Each structure stands twice: as C-alpha cells, then as structure tokens.
Amino acid sequence: MFSFAELKGRLIVSCQALPDEPLYGAPIMGRMALAAKEGGAAAIRAQGTADIRAIRELAGLPVFGLIKRSYADSDIYITPTSGEVRELIAAGCEVIALDMTDRVRPQGERTEDLVALIHAAGRAVLADISTYEEGLEAAGIGADAVATTMSGYTPYSPQTDGPDIALVKRLAAALPVPVFAEGRIRTGEEVKAVMQAGAFAPIIGSAITRPQCIAASFARALAPESSRSVRADHDGRTG
Ligand SMILES: CC(=O)N[C@H](C=O)[C@@H](O)[C@H](O)[C@H](O)COP(=O)(O)O
Questions:
Q1: Separation of 196 CA from ligand 1 center, angstroms?
Q2: Per the UniProt entry, what are the Gene Ontology biological process annotations, in alphabetical order (predicted)?
C-alpha cells in the first residue's frame, strides 16, 4: 500500500475542474498537474478517471483520486458509493479520497465497507472530514490519513474564511495517522500556519489551479463592491 511518509512537509496540489468550469478537460488538467510538479508538488489530488489517467501519464506523481457525483438520497458527493470506488481503483490512483463526514451515504451503503473495498485493492484511504469527531471516527474505522476538506462545507462545521487551523491542530495532536490541511489555503503565511498547527502537509487547490478564483481575488481588490463573486465548484453546493 502507498506510504504517505514521502509526502511529509511536501506540497500537494489539487487539480480539478468540473464541466461548468473554464479549464474543464483531461488534457488541461494533465498540463496543470505538470505545472504543479514543476513548481514543487509531490502529489496531486484529482477528480474523475479521465483527469486521473491524464495526470498519471503526464506528471507521473502519486494521485489522491476522487469522483464527485450527486445522488438524490444523500448530501455526500465526494466518492459517495462503492461504484465510484471501483472506478477509481481501475484508474490506478494510489490513494482514494472519500467523504467520511457523519452523514448518511447514498443507496444505504456503509463507509466501513468502502474502506474495506479500498484496502482489499491495496490502496490507501484519505478521509475528507469536517469536524474533530469525524476525524477520530474516520481513523477509528481504518482511514490511513485524514484531510480537513469538508470543514466549512457541512452545515454544522465552522464557516471560516481561511483554513480551519484549529481543526488541524486538534486532529494532529490526537491522531496517529497523517492529518492534511485542506480547504481555503491561499497564501504562504497560511501554509506556515497549518504546518505550525501540526499538519502533515498542505493540499492546495483553487489558489493554484482555478484561475477564475485567482482573477476574482485581484478584481475584488480593485472594486470590492461591484466585483462578481466566482464560485469554486464544490459540485454547486457552496458559495
Ligand atoms: C469542499 C470540496 O468539495 N472540495 C473539493 C475537494 O476535492 C475541491 O473542490 C477543493 O478545490 C479542494 O478541496 C481544495 O480546496 P481549495 O480549493 O479551497 O484549496
């Protein structure tokens, strides 16, 4: 199984664009991952099997794979069911990221069974969680690493403007597995802050790979009142 040890203190870049985003397309995400690698990324977080295959071919870095898919009977959209897990195993990614928040999975599936399926295929599990309790629970049922990805995106987690540094700190102090800081890291200072809080490594997306968000941050500096708000995708669920 993949060992996270080589990623300690290294930059992980999330390269994602959904169909409604300007950079949608596997060849583009492959190039984006190559650029991230040139900039020092040691691994890539990626969405969808076409992107994952292109990224593995072009950048040749370990991939944390996920599939965003919505189901009518659940709010979970990051690798929700065993169907997505099987697709990701076939795509070859070393690590499979899945929502391990305390919410009901679609189609009556159980998180424990997804973890077992991933381990049986020799892959590692990255748990995307939104609270301290969810992090403990995820590690307790076998997650090999935890990421603060969903903090700010469940109705019951704190809606912080930047990364949830307090959550990183509590989880890093409590868990034997790596705790990745993910979500709304936009500056080098924030990278230093999450590392100081005990993060194993930062996972950074929009601030590097969503140019529409980067442009909007500059546009806001010029005209804070009138500038358009540009949404990071998050499956259309968050503003
Ligand atoms: C909440 C959710 O669905 N997050 C997604 C998870 O894969 C991605 O859209 C984010 O870009 C990623 O987590 C990195 O975060 P940020 O883009 O803030 O650096």
A1: 21
A2: carbohydrate metabolic process; N-acetylmannosamine catabolic process; N-acetylneuraminate catabolic process
- For residues 139 and 200, give the distance between their C-alpha atoms in angstroms, rounded to a whole number: 15
Residue 59: name the closest of 74, 75, 41 by CA.
Answer: 41
The answer to whether the CB of 206 is under 6 A from ligand 1 is yes
Q: What is the 3-state secondary structure (H, E, C) of 63-77?
A: EEEECECCCCCCCCC
Domains of the chain: 7-236 (3.20.20.70)
- Predicted ipTM beyond 0.85: yes
**Residue 210 · residue 21 · CB < 8 Å:** yes
The alpha carbon of 190 and the centre of ligand 1 are apart by a number of angstroms equal to 16
User: Against a cut of 0.90, is the pTM above it?
Assistant: yes
Q: How far is CA 111 from the centre of its chain?
A: 17
Q: Which residues pair with 12 in a beta bridge?
A: 43, 203
Query: How confident is the model over 150-160, as pLDDT tens digits?
Result: 999 999 999 99
